[in-house]
Amino acid sequence: MAALNHTGVSHTVFHLLGIPGLEDQHMWISIPFFISYTIALLGNSLLICIILTKRSLCEPMYLFLCMLAGADLVLSTCTVPQTLAIFWLRAGEISLDRCITQVFFLSSTFISESGILLVMAFDRYIAICYPLRYTTILTHALIGKIGVTIFLRSYSTILPIVFLLKRLNFCWSNILPNTACEHIVLAHVSCDDIRVNIWYGFFVLMSTLVIDVVLIFISYVLILRAVFCIPTRDARHKALNTCGAHICVIILFYAPGIFSVLTQRFGHNISPHIHVLLAIVYILAPPMLNPIIYGVKTKQIRDQVVRVFFRKQK
User: Fold this and answer.
1) Which secondary structure element, helix H or strand E, spans residue 168, and what is its range?
2) Which tens digits make up the pLDDT trace of 229-279?
3) Cα–Cα–Cα angle for 44, 143, 141, rounded to 5 degrees
4) Alpha carbons 264 and 122: distance in angstroms, whole number
């Protein structure tokens, strides 16, 4: 499908190129993507099943982890099956409505994950600073309300982007040099003024992800201050160890995303395929590695996973 010049007709069907410049390598690139997606599906599904079926894992920490695993499943499934279809079948055609729907779910799920990581930092703060009141503060009712608030925040923040994209006329080109529809990528092929889209995208970034990062940082400053006031070394080590998995997941979630945003903003000399690969990494890496990190770092989950596979072997 060839790109069309400005004709005054707004396109309703677009063509996703995949990874521009590496079209000949799509089949080989698809192998690690398929393996990573399979690990993400199996790992997060197993994590959710174990947490929901084991009474010993009904603590707030594990319920928040269950939310994170669910968000990981949605985040990876929003894009990876379509990416594999492009790689294997060259099925890059996508309607405008489906494209905007993908933008909505991809962006809102990303913000939801950020919110879940924030409340998990708050959870660790309560567990370490107020251990005797931990379960009385974080009741199941409060956890439910927190979960609803996280998803309402993400959906209400991203919903205006749907209308901002709907108002645009896409008459410059119907070619999207990407594996998935993203807000600014789609807006850039419009022939209308997209300054409102750009500024609203900046507002979303600052009002959600940036605030979340700042609050997570403040939470861990308070946690570290409380930990270093603990008199015994073993107790300090145990308290820090409970935060280890969460810190790894935070770095894994935010670092690729921040690096991708910086390269898009300032890396004008970087090849387009590098931008696309970075975007895929920050969507696929956290869902794949989060269950592994929590499985390795958290003894209770590790023990339950061993029991599941041991029982199957018997």
Assistant:
1) none
2) 777 777 777 777 777 788 888 988 888 777 776 666 666 677 777 878 888
3) 130
4) 32
Structure tokens at 187: 């807006």
Contact by Cβ (8 Å): 99, 82: no
Instruction: State the pLDDT at residue 275.
Output: 78
Asked whether the beta carbons of 100 and 166 are under 8 A apart, the reply is yes
How far from chain centre, in Å, is Cα 1?
31
pLDDT digits (tens, 9 = 90+) for 302-314: 888 777 777 655 5
244-248 own/partner pairs: CB under 8 Å, 24+ apart = 244/297, 245/293, 245/294, 245/296, 245/297, 245/298, 246/117, 246/120, 246/121, 246/124, 247/220, 248/293, 248/297
How many Å from the N-terminal Cα to the C-terminal Cα in the chain? 55
The span from the CA of 298 to the CA of 264, in Å, is: 36
> What distance lies between CA 23 and its chain's CA centroid?
26
On whether the CB atoms of residues 179 and 86 are closer than 8 A, the answer is: yes
Tell me if 154 sits within 8 A of 108, measured CB to CB. Answer: yes
Using DSSP, state whether 31 is helix, strand or coil.
helix
Query: Which among 92, 102, 116, 87 is positioned nearest to 24, based on CA atoms?
Result: 87
175-176 and 93-95 strand pairing: unpaired
Largest separation between any pair of C-alpha atoms in the chain: 73
The structure tokens listed for 35 are 């393996």
